[in-house]
Amino acid sequence: MKRRALLALAVVAGAAQAAPAGLVAKLKAQADAWDRAIVAKDRAAIAANMADDFRQIDARGNVETKASFVDGLVTPDLVLDPYTVEDFEVRVYGDTALISGRTRMTGRYQGQPFSTHYRYIDVYVKRGGAWKIVSVQISPIKD
Question: Could you tell me the domains of the chain?
């Protein structure tokens, strides 16, 4: 009996990590649309992808709320160039998805050019049938 329970647990644990291709494609499309909304400074589209209890931990360890995160992205002081994500990966665990990758971002802040390279992880949770981002953490990569 104990062996059967362990085998069942192993099967369930393995299945939790293997996301259906359709779900992975849906989450990738959602993440890509969010990136485009960020570059376009589309406040409504940025916020629509986020849970109300969203938190970001930035490269300096600061914590941002949904409101402060969105405000920081749409400020006229910030201009982001279009960017792509490298090493994109989606891992799904039930109603939670971890989306990660690397980004080389360029743009201007208060008229001054900048360039960053970082790795990120976005945590999405399925609530009420919709996937919403609840957390973002970024880590700078030294080139």
Answer: 20-140 (3.10.450.50)
